Amino acid sequence: MMAIQGHLSLLLVVVPLIMAPIVAILPRARLAWFVALLVAVVCALLAGIQLWNIVNGGAISYELGGWAPPWGIEYRIDAVNAFVALIVAGITALTLPYALLSVEKEIPKQQIPFFYALFLLCLCGLLGITQTGDIFNVFVFLEISALASYGLISLGRHRQALTSAYQYLIMGTIGATFFLIGVGLIYSQTGTLNFADLAERLPAVFEHKTVHTGFAFIVIGVALKLALFPLHLWLPNAYTYAPTVVTIFLAATATKVAVYLMLRILFTIFPDNFVVNTPIFDLFIILGIAGILIASLYAIYQMDIKRLLAYSSVAQIGYMALGIGLASTAGVMATLLHLFNHALMKGALFMAVGAIIYRLGSCRMDNINGLGRVMPWTFGAVIIGGLSLVGIPGTAGFVSKWYLILAALEQQAWISVAVILVGSLLAVVYVGKIIEALYFKAALEANKSIKEAPLLLLLPTWTLALANIYFGLNTELTVGVATSAAQLLIGTIE
Questions:
Q1: Per-residue pLDDT tens for 90-105?
Q2: What confidence tens digit (pLDDT) does each residue in 189-248 have?
Q3: CA 165 to CA 153: how far, in whole Å?
Q4: Buried (b) or exposed (e) across 265-301, using 16+ Cβ within 10 A?
Q5: For the segment 119-165, what is each residue's pLDDT rounded down to a tens digit?
């Protein structure tokens, strides 16, 4: 067991990477699903053990191939990336049981093994980003996860899935190119790619315009990946037309990993006076505010629930950007906390929407009238996820918004406080639209014969729905880990 613990960070990446091609050649769809599920459960257990070890024993450095950093690639794990890795692996382990029936409904049988292979490759890329301490290695894992995502999105039932995947490919390629150009410029001035080594060498070359340019390219590249307003244009179509399981997975994990990467770049690689003396934090506050308000307004006018929730995700990323822009321990802690809580609430909501699609074949507002009466368990989860999205006390969404308001008050950022409150009121409107259609509009004749979603869809959905309540009432674990992680990140600034 001790030998395995020493290789946890590597196993988290290698296990899904090795199993992906094996899953692709399995002869039966359900066998491919079962193997993928086992991989996800193993990764979740490894991520949980890793976080436990970090919390109780401090950061871990793993040297790949026995090459000492900075010459070799280093996986360096602390409370920040261990926390994000557990979110990714945990959501994956909950999503795959849900996937069995949903994928069989939405994807041709002969393509299902390839679907799960791409799913594991995407998981490998996302976990790799959280584990590595090498900035070029980040680019490699970004591309692994992105290429797998393009394939997953393109498998959607509608023809628009192909155009959505193509649009994401174009935007993702631009983001990756910007990131790589920035890495190259920084490497030209420092001669290193290791995070820790970069942090030591950059102060000597801070005044060089090449470093400033490289920093700008990297930040823009990552901002495209995390769908920061107004670089979010790929996200609504991708979430709307992707298979439901893909939407659940990407909404709960991919943008969260990109937020983590942005935090790592701003507060680990470029510490001290460099970032503080740039307008980057003011820019994050402005774009965060714009994202919250504009994306929330767009969400109100959507007639497709998946697209409505997609715009809601852009707004929630705005909250995280606002926390980053505050550049304080409280602000970063609120961002990390919202990163976790948003995975719970949006995962539950997209799973509930997937149950609607499973029974109805559609999730348009004009097709769901009265469904709340015939699918009460599904729409009970919608209500809990919606209340958490609004930020009602007793839910996980309230906790992170509360800490974000406290962080803004700490700096007397009254406009930011007002925007957080207005954003929550706008969320009441678009969540209210869904609840009104489900419960308060006359049921369509065709909907009266609809049955409740299968248990295999309801169990993961309600696991996440109840987690919204549990972590809304018991905040010791999430707030504690997020605070430790924020202190690690922000220590170089304050």
A1: 999 989 998 888 888 8
A2: 888 888 878 888 877 777 788 888 888 898 899 888 888 888 888 888 888 888 888 999
A3: 6
A4: bbbbbbbeebbeebebbeebbebbbbbbbbbbebbee
A5: 999 999 999 898 888 888 889 998 999 899 898 898 877 788 888 88
**To 10 degrees, what angle do helices 8-24 and 29-57 make?**
170
How much is the average pLDDT of 294-310?
88
Alpha carbon distances (Å) from 220 to 232, 304, 376, 411: 12, 30, 44, 26
Asked whether the beta carbons of 262 and 352 are under 8 A apart, the reply is no
Is 143 inside any structural domain?
Answer: no
Q: Is the dihedral of CA 438, 441, 442, 445 positive or negative?
A: negative
How many domains are contained in the chain?
A: 1
Please, are residues 177 and 221 in contact by the beta-carbon 8 Å criterion?
yes
- Give CA–CA dist 235/222, Å, rounded: 14
- Our CA angle for 181, 182, 187, nearest 5°, is 100
- Alpha carbon distance 285, 17 (integer Å): 37
Provide the 3-class DSSP secondary structure of residue 230: coil
For the segment 432-461, the average pLDDT, to the nearest whole number, is 78
Task: Report how far residue 263's alpha carbon sits from residue 269's, in angstroms, rounded to the nearest whole number.
Answer: 9
Residue 308 is part of which domain span?
279-494
**Of the candidates 72, 82, 94, which has an alpha carbon nearest to the alpha carbon of residue 5?**
82
Distances (CA, A) of 295 to 9, 61, 185, 236, 404: 36, 40, 34, 10, 19
CA distances from 321 to 47, 239, 259, 263, 292 (A): 26, 20, 8, 10, 10
In angstroms, the CA 43 to CA 121 distance is 13
Residue length of the chain = 494
- Give alpha helix (H) positions in 65-134: 79-106, 112-131
Cα(395)–Cα(2) distance, integer angstroms: 38
- 341 CB-contact burial (10 Å; exposed 0-12 / middle 13-18 / buried 19+): buried
| SS3 call for 272 | coil
Q: Answer for the pair 150, 173: CB distance below 8 angstroms, yes or no.
A: no
Q: Is residue 460 part of a domain?
A: yes
Q: How far is it, in rounded angstroms, from Cα 388 to Cα 316?
A: 12
Compute the average pLDDT of residues 33-45: 90
Residue 408 lies in a domain: yes
- Alpha-carbon distance of 62 to 132, in angstroms, equals 9
SS3 61: strand
Would you say residue 111 lies in a domain?
A: no
